[in-house]
Write a structure and sequence with these properties.
The chain is mainly alpha-helical. It is about 50% helix and about 10% strand. The strands form 7 sheets. The protein has a 3-stranded mixed sheet with strand order 3-6-7, with no helix packed on it. Strands 10-12-11 form a 3-stranded antiparallel sheet, sandwiched between helices. The chain has a 3-stranded mixed sheet with strand order 13-14-15. Helix 22 packs antiparallel against helix 23 and helix 22 packs across helix 25.
Length: about 750
């Protein structure tokens, strides 16, 4: 009995096991069959014994009618079966459609045709038969239509050109929806790379990817760079600018937006200089993967189940960041060179056009004319003389003509600015305060010349020496109250030949000669400058030069000799040295001396010969030796005049005098600054010498010009330099100018958060 029961149980367990195995095999077979049908894009799903019907593509040359709507040639899927595969865009002819009208309910996220109300379907069909271009109250209708385009391209892989053009049309028609545009752009990017990346050209690629470089998303930009790499094409300046702008290493500044056009031009110039053939890109070994997320809920399910792949790989150009370092450097250089220009244009419509022009980098100035160029040209043309240059009063020049005080002097900085403007509008100017170190007065006369090539600042030390030596010679020539024009001409020619001046420098020297003949320089002024710059032995060489210049025309008149004696007194030179030099030349001190070429009588016992009556004989060798020293005098003056110019104050031409109420010297200023504790981290980016004056500036909201000038000078600073330094720093780290210039100086203390 027990044996029989055991046998029955064993049979029962065996039967159960067999049934389990059979069911398992049937289940696996069913799943495998279903997956295979899905991948084929046909009716793939079974529910019981009912077979799912595929959806139909309408396309060109076909039509269907639903209620009163005849749909012709549209890019849509449709079905006349209630049992079709899941497709959100499919127009099911079995579903009810009412009349179109105003509908308060929205389609919601991931809309589907099957979930629309009858009235919503009517609205959709009306829009569809109208060409899919009329305004939409709900962008969901356009999404449903787009789902069909997605399926046709990604699942069926057909009509790609037609789908691309239709997608672009939808983008232009319904540009106001950011979400809709985002999906369509991503779709275009994916199908372009997947199907046409090898054959598409640059213009079409840019058109498909977006409306412009700046609007490209990261993946679209990666695709663009990959295209350049794959086609072995160098990137142009526009692409290089975009690469640098997206690089996190590139400094951020208001300059790039405030002076956008100038920034782009300057970047292009520097890029062309650095990469004449353009930059060829490099790529990392590991590729970059692009993932596309379908808008259609039907396709989204297929990607999640693994039945539809929406990923592909492209060349990874951004994988090698080191190649873009030169572009980052160019970006930073452009910002620095345009800071001054940015500050000028930030002043708005009332900004000085000449100052705006002057703030431009030199490379950009060549592309535009100075705003005052025509005014200067007209002035020069109406005042040109037979020698080919124009003589003009300072008071008549643009920017000065509205100043009625003719006896007033300009500051050195304003004088230099005026000379710079002359160069910028295409003229050479003499005298030039950048060469002479002396300021203009309203009543002064200057000469303007057109250069042979470009206008320039003569930086040849021999030229500046020649001007000064000509001034000294003019003092001697004008000593008798009437200038000997031939003598001045001889001096000029002598300097031109000896100092090897360029053609334009010679023209400037001749023009300056005419100005000096009309208004000889001040003897006291010249001697004071010499005395402050030269050592006694150097001054003695200058004295010998003056005697040689006076004797060069064969005669030293009583008046010339008196002028030379005055210069010797001004320079604190021993008058007996002059007497000895005159006797060596063969003349008589104290009276008119006529010099004639010939040999001089010999000395006896080392003594000078007795004074002779009438003409005397010139020691020709000594005169040549004296005049030959002119080159030495020129070199010496060139060095000391340059040094004295560098040391002059940019406002007055003399060393800065610091108010006794403030630091007594530059060292004192530094000592005061060293004791100040930097409590604001932002100040770490500001030069330490401006910390103390900035702290005082922030103590109130407004200053008169006199008050601000006094404040700046108490710290040994020029007001303009102080404003520029503080505003440059605040513009970069506080986002705006701290000090606004006008009739008064206004201080925006709120930028510092009230901290003073």
């Amino acid at each position: 009995m027990e044996s029989s029961c055991t046998s029955c149980l064993s049979c029962l367990f065996f039967l159960i096991f067999v049934v389990f195995i059979i069911n398992l095999l049937i289940s696996k077979s069913s799943k495998k069959s279903g997956r295979s049908k899905k991948n084929a894009g046909a009716s793939s799903k079974t529910s019981g014994r009912v077979r799912m019907e595929p959806v139909k593509w309408l396309g060109t040359g076909n039509s269907f009618k639903i209620k009163d709507y005849l749909v012709i040639d549209q890019l849509v899927y449709w079905s006349d079966s209630s049992n079709h595969i899941p497709e959100a865009s499919c127009i099911d002819l079995k579903l009810p459609v009412s009349n179109p009208g105003t509908i308060t309910s929205e389609l919601g996220y991931w809309p589907e045709y099957s979930r629309m109300s009858p009235a919503q379907r009517a609205n959709y069909l009306l829009w569809l038969t109208g060409g899919c271009k009329s305004p939409l109250s709900d962008i969901g209708y356009a999404f449903v239509y787009f789902y069909g385009l997605e399926r046709r391209a990604l699942v069926d892989g057909k009509d790609l050109d037609t789908i691309t053009l239709e997608t672009l049309r939808l983008l232009r028609t319904y540009a106001s929806s950011a979400s809709f545009n985002s999906y369509l752009r991503a779709f275009l990017l994916f199908i372009t790379v997947k199907n046409r990346f090898e054959s598409i050209d640059e213009t079409e690629l840019i058109y498909l990817l977006g409306d412009g470089l700046t609007g490209l998303g990261e993946e679209a930009f990666r695709v663009l760079l990959a295209w350049f790499y794959n086609n072995k094409r160098p990137v142009s300046a526009d692409y290089a600018l975009e690469i640098a702008g997206r690089d996190l290493r590139s400094p951020r500044s208001v300059v790039t937006e405030r002076a956008r056009e100038q920034f782009q031009k300057l970047f292009a110039m520097k890029y062309a200089a650095r990469f004449p053939q353009g930059m060829f890109l490099k790529a990392a070994v590991r590729e970059y993967t692009i993932e596309y997320r379908p808008a259609s809920p039907s396709l989204l399910k297929l990607t999640r189940s693994g039945d539809l792949s929406c990923s592909l790989s492209i060349t990874n150009v951004l994988g090698i960041q080191s190649q873009f370092k030169p572009l980052v450097e160019i970006w930073g250089q452009c910002i620095e060179e345009l800071r001054a220009y940015s500050r000028e244009i930030a002043k708005g419509p009332g900004s000085d056009e000449a100052a705006v022009y002057r703030a431009l980098p030199e490379a950009l100035k060549a592309e535009r004319d100075h705003p005052d160029k025509l005014i200067w040209a007209d002035l020069a043309a109406s005042n040109i003389n037979e020698e080919g240059y124009a003589c003009l009063k300072i008071s008549a020049l643009p920017g000065i003509a509205d100043k009625p005080a003719l006896d007033a002097k300009l500051t050195l900085s304003r004088s230099r600015e005026l000379a710079l403007t002359a160069n910028e509008v295409g003229f050479l100017i003499v005298p030039d305060p950048r060469v002479t170190g002396r300021v203009y007065a309203h009543g002064d006369t200057v000469a303007l010349l057109k250069p042979r090539k470009d206008a320039f600042l003569p930086e040849n030390p021999a030229y500046s020496s020649a001007l000064f030596l000509l001034e000294l010679g003019t003092v001697i020539a004008a000593a008798d109250g009437e200038i000997d024009h031939m003598e001045i001409a001889n001096i000029t020619g002598f300097l031109e030949t000896l100092l090897n001046l360029s053609l334009d420098e010679r023209r400037l020297l001749k023009a300056y000669r005419s100005l000096l003949e009309a208004k000889p320089p001040s003897l006291s002024g010249l001697s004071k400058r010499l005395k402050s710059s030269l050592t006694p032995p150097q001054l003695e060489i200058v004295g010998r030069y003056l005697v040689g210049i006076a004797a060069a025309n064969g005669v030293i008149t009583t008046e010339e000799l008196a002028a030379i004696r005055r210069i010797y007194r001004y320079l604190d030179l021993d008058p007996s040295t002059l007497d000895g030099l005159l006797l060596d030349l063969g003349g008589k001190s104290g009276s008119a001396v006529e010099i004639q070429t010939g040999k001089r009588a010999s000395r006896e016992d080392g003594k000078f010969p007795a004074v002779q009556e009438g003409p005397v004989v010139l020691n020709d060798d000594l005169l040549r030796k004296i005049l030959a020293e002119t080159a030495e005098v020129s070199n010496m003056l060139g060095e000391v005049l340059k040094a004295s110019e560098d040391e002059e104050s940019p406002q007055s031409g003399s060393p800065v005098s610091i108010n006794s109420t403030g630091p007594s010297s530059t060292a004192g200023v530094e000592a005061v600054l060293d004791t100040q504790e930097v409590t604001d981290e932002r100040l770490a980016e500001l030069d330490a010498r401006y910390h103390c004056p900035l702290k005082e500036i922030l103590s109130k909201n407004q200053y008169t010009r006199l008050e601000f000038d006094d404040l700046a000078r108490r710290y040994g600073l020029m007001p303009a330099a102080l404003v520029d330094a503080v505003n440059c720093w605040s513009d970069e780290f506080l986002g705006d100018f701290l000090i606004e210039e006008g009739d008064v100086y206004s201080v925006n203390t709120s930028l510092m958060g009230g901290e003073q």
